[in-house]
Structure to design on (279 residues):
C-alpha cells in the first residue's frame, strides 16, 4: 500500500525550503523587533509572514487539515491537539538568534494524525541543512541518513539545554541549579545553541549526546521528536516518564542511560501545558 502521508511530507519539505529562503533574505535587511509575553520573548514581522506563507500554502492543498502555529497561538488560536491531521509549525525557531544573526535559525514543521507524529521537517536555513524523518523510515540530513552518537556514558557527553530570563525567582533558581547539577556530574560540556529544533537535530546526528528543556513548546519539538526518534535516539519527559508532546518538557538523548541520568539529576518547575487554555 502506498504511504498516505508521503505526499504531505513532500509538500512540507518544499514549503519549508521556501520559508527558509524567506528567512535568509530577511537576514540581509533591517530586522524590527516586537515583544510578546515579556521583554525577552521576541517576535518579528518575518515570524508572522513566514507562518502565514506556510499555513496558506498547506491549507490550499489540504483544506480539511488542522494547524497549531506558534504565531497563530500567540494571537489567540487554539493549541489543542485533536485526532485530525495536524500541522504543528514554528516558522522561526530561534527568533532571538534571528534578531542577532546568530546562525542557528530554523523552520520546524511536525505532522500528527490521531495525535501520533507521522513526520518532521526541520530546516536550519543559515547552515542550509534540511533534516527530515518519516515514521518508520529513518532520519536524514540533506538526504543522507543520520544517527545518534550511541554514547551511554554521561561523563563523556555534551549536553544541550536553553537558559533564559524567568520572572519567577524560584523557577530561575531551579533552572540554574539544574545546570550546576549536570555540569558537576561531570559532563564534557553544556551548550545552548538557541533553537530547540536544531538542538534535537544535533542530538539526532550525533553532534551532541543529549538535550533537556523545561518550558519548551509543542511547535519547538514536534518535528524534532520524529527526527531524533528515527535517528535511534531516546525521548522522554523531564520527570523520566513517557514523552508528551503537549507537556512542555523534554529530554532527548543518544541512549536511555543518559536520558534517565538527566531525569534523575534535574528538578522540575511548573510551566503549564500547551493544551491548557491559560498556560
Ligand atoms: Mg518561533
Amino acid at each position: 500500500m502506498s504511504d498516505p502521508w508521503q505526499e504531505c511530507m513532500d509538500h512540507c519539505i518544499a514549503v519549508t525550503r521556501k520559508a527558509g529562503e524567506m528567512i535568509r533574505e530577511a537576514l540581509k535587511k533591517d530586522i524590527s523587533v516586537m515583544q510578546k509575553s515579556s521583554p525577552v520573548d521576541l517576535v518579528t514581522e518575518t515570524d508572522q509572514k513566514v507562518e502565514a506563507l506556510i499555513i496558506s500554502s498547506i491549507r490550499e492543498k489540504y483544506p480539511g487539515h488542522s494547524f497549531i502555529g506558534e504565531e497563530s497561538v500567540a494571537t489567540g488560536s487554539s493549541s489543542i491537539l485533536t485526532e485530525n491531521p495536524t500541522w504543528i509549525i514554528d516558522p522561526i525557531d530561534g527568533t532571538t538568534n534571528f534578531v542577532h544573526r546568530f546562525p542557528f535559525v530554523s523552520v520546524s514543521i511536525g505532522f500528527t494524525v490521531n495525535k501520533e507524529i507521522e513526520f518532521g521537517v526541520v530546516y536550519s536555513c543559515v547552515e542550509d541543512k534540511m533534516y527530515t524523518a518519516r515514521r518508520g523510515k529513518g532520519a536524514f540530513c540533506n538526504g543522507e541518513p543520520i544517527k545518534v552518537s550511541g554514547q551511554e556514558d554521561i561523563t563523556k557527553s555534551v549536553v544541550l539545554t536553553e537558559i533564559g530570563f524567568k520572572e519567577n525567582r524560584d523557577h530561575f533558581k531551579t533552572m540554574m541549579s539544574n545546570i550546576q547539577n549536570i555540569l558537576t556530574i561531570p559532563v564534557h560540556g553544556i551548550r545552548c545553541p538557541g533553537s530547540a529544533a536544531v538542538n534535537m537535530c544535533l542530538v539526532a546526528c550525533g553532534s551532541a549526546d543529549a538535550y533537556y528543556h523545561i518550558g519548551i513548546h509543542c511547535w519547538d519539538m514536534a518535528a524534532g521528536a520524529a527526527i531524533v526518534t528515527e535517528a535511534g535516539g531516546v525521548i522522554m519527559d523531564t520527570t523520566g516518564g513517557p514523552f508528551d508532546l503537549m507537556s512542555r518538557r523534554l529530554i532527548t538523548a543518544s541512549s536511555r542511560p543518559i536520558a534517565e541520568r538527566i531525569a534523575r539529576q534535574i528538578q522540575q518547575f511548573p510551566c503549564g501545558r500547551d493544551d491548557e487554555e491559560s498556560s
In short: DSSP finds eight helices and 14 strands in the chain. Residues 234 and 256 are 6 Å apart (CA to CA). The chain has two domains: 4-145, 154-265. The first strand starts at residue 33 and ends at 35.
